[in-house]
Every structure is written in C-alpha cells, then in structure tokens.
UniProtKB/TrEMBL annotation:
An example molecular function term from Gene Ontology annotations: magnesium ion binding
GO CC annotation, single: cytoplasm
Listed name of the protein: Xylose isomerase
Organism: Breznakiella homolactica
Protein origin, superkingdom: Bacteria
Keyword Membrane appears in the UniProt entry: no
Cofactor(s) for this UniProt protein: Mg(2+)
Binding partners and assembly: Homotetramer.
Documented EC number(s): 5.3.1.5
Active site: 109, 112
Family: Belongs to the xylose isomerase family.
Cofactor note: Binds 2 magnesium ions per subunit.
Keywords: Carbohydrate metabolism, Cytoplasm, Isomerase, Magnesium, Metal-binding, Xylose metabolism
Binding annotation for Mg(2+) 1: 240, 276, 304, 347
Amino acid sequence: MADYFKGNTEYFPGIKKISYEGPKSDNPLAFKYYDPEKTVGGKKMKDHLRFAVAYWHSFCADGSDPFGSATHVHPWTADASSPMEAAEHKLDAAFEFFTKLGAEYYCFHDRDMAPEGSSPAESEKNLMAIVAKAKERQKATGVNLLWGTANMFNHPRFMNGAATNPEFKVVALAASQIKTAIDATIELGGEGYTFWGGREGYMSLLNTDLKREKDHLAMILTMARDYARGRGFKGMFYIEPKPMEPSKHQYDFDVETVAGFLRHYGLDKDFRMNIEANHAELAGHDFFHELETAASMGLFGSVDANRGDPMNGWDTDQFPTSYTETALAMYAILRAGGFTTGGLNFDAKIRRNSVDPADLFEAHIGGMDAFAAGLIAAQRMIDDGKLSGFVKQRYASFDSGEGAKFEKGGMSLQELAALGTVYGNAGITSGKQERLENIVNQYLLNL
C-alpha cells in the first residue's frame, strides 16, 4: 500500500505509518495484536478481517451532540474556499489516514464525499466529480471501496421516510439519490452496496399505512438491484438492521425481521445483512446472536464494527474494546465461511472530548487489535473443537434412530406423541454454560 500523503498537504503530521510492535509494546500508535501479514488458519490476518474506515464518522463528524456544538476542528476544511474544495481536502485527509493506518478499505455515504447541490442534477455532478478524484487516489494507494450507500435520513425531506415516504415526489427524489450512489459505487469498484433505513419506519401507526410502506420499500430495493445488475454490478447488496432511533419503529428491526422481509418479497438471493454490534444491542440482542442468526439462514454478509454503552439506550457508536465480544463475533464469522465481499467497517466515532488528531488513530488501532485478538481466539476455538464438539454431542439424539427420522420429516405427530408416552422423565441434562464460558476465557487469556 502506497503512502498517499507524500507530496501532498499532510493533515496528520508527526504520525508515521502504524506498525505491529507486539503485546509488550507501550506505544499507543502501534498494533499489539494486529499483524496484517500473520497467518491464522491458513489465511493472512488482513484477509480475514478486511478492515474498512467509515468516511462519515472519521472525517465528517465534529463532536457535536444534542446538547453542545462542535468540538472537533477539521484542518481539511479550514482553508477551503468552497464546499467542493473542502470535499477534496477531506478526500486527501482520508487517504492519508487510510494509508498511515494500513486499512485497505473504506465505506461512504454520498453526502460524506460531496456536498448536496441546489438540485438533484447538481448533487450528482458534485458527487461524480469527487468520485473521479477518489478513483485516482485509490489507484495511487491500493485502498479500495468496500461498499457505498446513500444518506437518506439527514435532509428534512426525509423526515417521513425515503422509500417509505407518503409523498410520491420524495420517493422519486430518493430513487434519484440511490441511482447516483450506485453509479458512484460502481465507478469506484465497490464490492457491495448497503441500505440502512434510518427513516424507513414510523413514529405513529395512527398516520401510517404500514403494508403500503413496506411494499414501496421492497419495490425500491428491487428497482435498485435491477438497475445495478443491468449496469454489470456483481457485488452484494446489504441491509443493515436497526430497531429504532431515529424512528420509533424501523422496518429493518433485526436480522430475523429483515430475513422475513427479504424472503417475503423474493429478495434473499441478492441481499445479505450488514450487522452492526450497537444495533444488535438496541434490538435487545447481542452481536454474537445477530451474526449467528444471519449465518444460520445463509444471509451473513458484512459487519459494522462498533459497540454500544449498556447503560445508555442510544446508538453511541463507540469503538469495540471487548475482546470477549470480538472473539465470539469472529467465531461466528469464521464458521460462516468468513468474509467474501464484506468486511469489518468501523462505524464508530471518537468521543466528543477526544480532540487530538492522534485520538482517531488510537481508536482505530484499539478496534483493530480487538478484532485481531478475537480472530486468534476464535481460530483456537475452531481448531480445538471443544465448543463445537459439545454442541454436537448435545444434539446427538437427532443423529440416528427415531431422532433422525423425526428431523428428516419422516414421522407424524401421532408417532412422535406415542414415543413421548414411553420415554418418561427426560431432559434433565446440564447445558454446561459456565464451563463453556470458562473455556472461551481460556482461549482469550492465551493470546
């Protein structure tokens, strides 16, 4: 990977390319567990993990919140004479960051890359102008686009939804924005395209035709798929589940809900899940659960890597630091076959009071180390086979005899009930949950 900042304005001066120094290093700007060339399970770490940087949080977020103004001052916008010049400076800062961090992918919303114009035509012109420059920087550095998406939740026109808006004109404007974002993704060689329905839901059922809105959402997704495929796009489409916030109820509530939606509308062959840890928590699940659920249905695709605050029922988008959580996540991902077009996108932001340029690097380093450590532990879990062996034994009664006959659908309810009358007292067998949790800790403590 080439350094982009050489010969250009350096927005992160004094920070050199981040390198692996091992777990004994006390250098905050060095990896402790992420060694990109290290082989784990026959595959390089960087190829297992496919780290991506989220353009929006890293280069657009300014630290503001509902109770306070911006605290992050971005040098890449300070000396710009126009919004488009600021967008190009931001692009330079982003590629400097990618190459210094050693991340091989990034993800973006259309409005992260380029400012919205006074008309859809001007917005498209702005985006494609920056896309042309991004394409040059990708070629110069070897950094690639993991996936693109459209921001259809910030603008006031989308306050009642985008694809699910009750006004047809807004639906048409949403389609225009999706088309342009798909064009941008294709032009940049993106490996996927993501839909997050931040406003695709309702605040009150009293003013909502729920069936009609979901039909419209499915229609837009179908049209988007057909358009992209017609343009030769062979990548995967992702739905990112989230239960609420900003809407009271979003139609992409969780993995199970989205799976039912996709299958109902015949979209499950082209769409997979982009699973976010913080969204899983807001839905009342954990990250491991949502990954396992998607994998069990063949719908696992990609990951937005972050965490929430268990004491705060809000989408806090913090960087992942729990090695237990990342180990279980990587265990699920590896058993699902690993990433193909997806990866680990850090949809996470530094805190409002983290105002030093180095903080953005340290946050990503910590997240990358957490998933690298999780990968090592997860591979040990798989190689050792204790966890999978226990599960196999727990369900062994379905592998032969009457249990196998039942599982294959070769038994009527009367036959099954007749067997139940003779089995008597059964089911008092320990699940050994505590033992299994202790085993996971053993893998983690032997990094």
